[in-house]
Amino acid sequence: MRQPSVIARRVAAASVSLVLAAGAAACGPEDNDAKGAGGDSTPHRGGTLTVLNANPQQDFDPARLYTSGGGNVPSLVFRTLTTRNREDGAAGTKVVPDLATDTGRPDKDATVWTYTLKKGLKYEDGTPITSADIKYGIERSFAPELSGGAPYLRDWLVGAADYQGPYKDDKGLDAIETPDERTIVFHLNKPEGEFPYLATQTQFTPVPKAKDTGTKYEEHPVSSGPYKVVRNENDGERLILERNPHWSAATDAGRKAYPDKVDVRSGLDSSVINQRLSASQGADAAAVTTDTNLGPAELAKVSGDRDLASRVGTGHFGYTNYIAFNPRIKPFDDVKVRQAISYAIDRSSVVNAAGGSALAEPATTFLPNQKSFGYTPYDHFPAGEAGDPAKAKELLKEAGHPDGLTVTLTHSNARDFETSPEIATAVQDALKKAGITVKLQGLEENDYSDKIHDVKSEPGFFLAHWGADWPSGGPFLAPIFDGRQIVEDGANFNTGLLNDKSVNTEIDAINKLTDLDQAAKRWGALDRRIGEKALTVPLFHPVYKRLYGKDVKNIVISDWTGVLDVSQVAVK
């Protein structure tokens, strides 16, 4: 995830970032076990689902969206080759077929992936969906005027590095073949065992070339999912979705599509959203949010109300907040100094600064504590919950700083309870006990992002965070620790500037694996090995707590997105 804070918002608003939604419409979806509020807990077809969000659903074009697992609201309109398994918890981290009959068939070295489309797929106008439409949808995502989506395809597809999209080069990409209307074949530069995860991104949405209106396509993208766009106001500030009459549950076992209509209203203050969901009056009784968490004060109030507490969805998204070091800058070039800070950290105070244990879980590993990432427990610098200042002082003495030292910690001024002043102050207080004086440098969000992602300006000591494009160790470890991904002139995310040949080689070896369970174990082992270098200090993993209206039923929150899946909810 190239920009974690942005992606997390998009998974939340679309999914994020962020994500983070049966027969023809005349046939009702099968009932499943319901979880949610209301006297009759069984989900029924009908009604209007209202979505109350802070951030507008901008760039509602599959080429421009950067989502995880196809997003949340976007996945009501856009189907992809594969998608996330729409189940609670860890079961929801699996990738499953969507438009395709399976999750993909690799050749022996995972450089060629073949997919076959299901039969009977149709757009909202009743015309058939073809493999050529998926190829065209991917190709248009390369157009500069439609930028914003996940960047992997440019790196992974053979000959795609300089492709400028079909508006400038209508020959298309030779790396994508469509031998017939139901078959699509991808040729990759190198083995990629996790290609099925990538195929969940909205860039794999079919787009009929005849209906492509370029930058205006977002106003009425042609639906392949259970809902179509009937109104898009102010670049996604308000979206109204109604049923796609040609969507068939026979080809789509995942999306339940219970409501008749989905009304997405954005640009709202987060406190207003939580107040409206709490009161649950009128249309708000059948409302959810896909991007607004309960804050510490709001959660305390909700926890004291039995009815409200029963309407809080709890989720975990693969995300780590951490301290980053730049080893090119003194004194952080000395591993003993980095180790000293690792021992000095008081994670209990950091968790409290992030909102308490209900909203944050302490972290000693860089990978999130979920099986799909390959989570392997370790703590190379064990200091208990409150830190070990004595051990930190010992290491500082060995590093030539018997009287302590003074350092500057860069952080964001955004009140996000992640890289913000509250967290920075908790770090400052903990390190003071170890004889380390910390001066705080708070920057506005844009300045902070520009500074920490530029090798030329990257500070020596700063707060950072990273979130998953999909639930695997690959998009978590590679961007941060693969030396070949260091960008000297542009946006760089390898903050520790690590370029270790053995680490790079292991990343390549894991990428060849198509057995994702085996790959996960290897990612976990690699995380443990990299952790010994003390290039980061993992602090905590966030927990999402979100209210929903009293008439909302069938709550499904997977560990892929960590937020309520709008494709599953019912309001009757």
From TrEMBL:
Residues 1-21 form the signal peptide. PROSITE patterns: PROKAR_LIPOPROTEIN. Keywords: Signal. Residues 94-484 form the Solute-binding protein family domain. This is ABC transporter substrate-binding protein. PANTHER family: ABC TRANSPORTER SUBSTRATE-BINDING PROTEIN, PERIPLASMIC BINDING COMPONENT OF ABC TRANSPORTER. SUPFAM superfamilies: Periplasmic binding protein-like II. Residues 207-226 are annotated as: Disordered. It holds the Pfam family SBP_bac_5. Residues 209-221 have a biased composition (Basic and acidic residues).
